[in-house]
Amino acid sequence: MKPIILHIIPTLGKAGAETALVRLVSGSIARFPGFGHVVVVLTVPGFWSSELQSKNVSVFYLGLNGCSSIFSALFKSIKIVKNIKPSIIHGWMYHSCLLSFILHFFFRSSRIVWGIRNSVPVGSPSLTWLIRSVMAVLSRLDLVNILYVSKESMSSHMTAGFSEKKGSIIPNFVNFNPGGVSLFHANSHLNLNSPIRSIVILSVARYHKVKGHKIFLKSLSRLRSADVNFVALMAGHGVDDDNLDLLSLREELGLKDCVSFLGHKSKMGDLFYASDIYCLHSLSEGFPNSLLEASSYGLTCVATKVGGVDEVVSNSSLLATPGSDVDLFHALKYACYLSDSERQNIGNANRKLVFDRFGENRILGLYNDFYEKL
Questions:
Q1: pTM across the whole model
Q2: Domain 186-357 - what CATH class?
Q3: How does pLDDT run across 222-246, given as a tens digit for each residue?
């Protein structure tokens, strides 16, 4: 019987950690069948549930919903571990990492992996701070193995008290887009009311304060004041015409005719093909999947200096200080003032870097080697 890796994750929503988990499990089944994979979700079914079901991956839901359900969820997870007898318990994100430590004592032959998917943000909620503080103490124990998603994630956690003697880094990966750069532009492909020569700027992020959508809109207002001819496409869960905060700010900044809120898109290829520039405007990240996706489509990328961004975007003129709309404006203006051929050269270089360093085969191989050495 093949050894089992039990993955524990809070949700199966369409966010970075969940996407990385599903890609890892799906890809490993085909390429590295030496391990079996089982997923335990702290809450209820989500966006990726059907994808895992289609791969015949066993998924268990603990139904955690507030303090009143903690003990019920814990008992369910203990029962699952005793039945499955996993060789490795891999926790994804803080709450799941802490649960993986607890479950180890009910099946002591299992190895523990903590998947740290974020950098340490400023002003964490008190519960998150408490869990991270407990984990920092536990990280010094020999039985804990830590897997960070980027150099920034590792260094910020070590600064926060995590063991400096251990920690491996495996970044996110992208299912590489084999096509070339499309000649479509958003103006014709998406029927936007703007001149065909407009530069198309794309943003993809779920609506959350840490994603910096308002900073992005303020930077676009400055860009327009600088007489840059552009249209901006903003996609992501909650970034739609029902979002009153974003609608109000767009109206206040006079951007209604050049900024479109597209909401969640299950297939992003057309949007990447339609765009000239991709902008990541987060205040904090671990290692952004969307930046890898945009790079795989050969886009010039502008990004705030968060997470592992500098491992993908090396040109300092395309990087901005997180939370600064002025800094982001200057980076966007620099990208917009590049010629088409200059942007194409940058995009081609981005595409090659992603293929060489963050391609699916390479990163899946790193995971498999990591698991085998435990």
A1: 0.82
A2: alpha beta
A3: 999 999 999 999 999 999 999 999 9
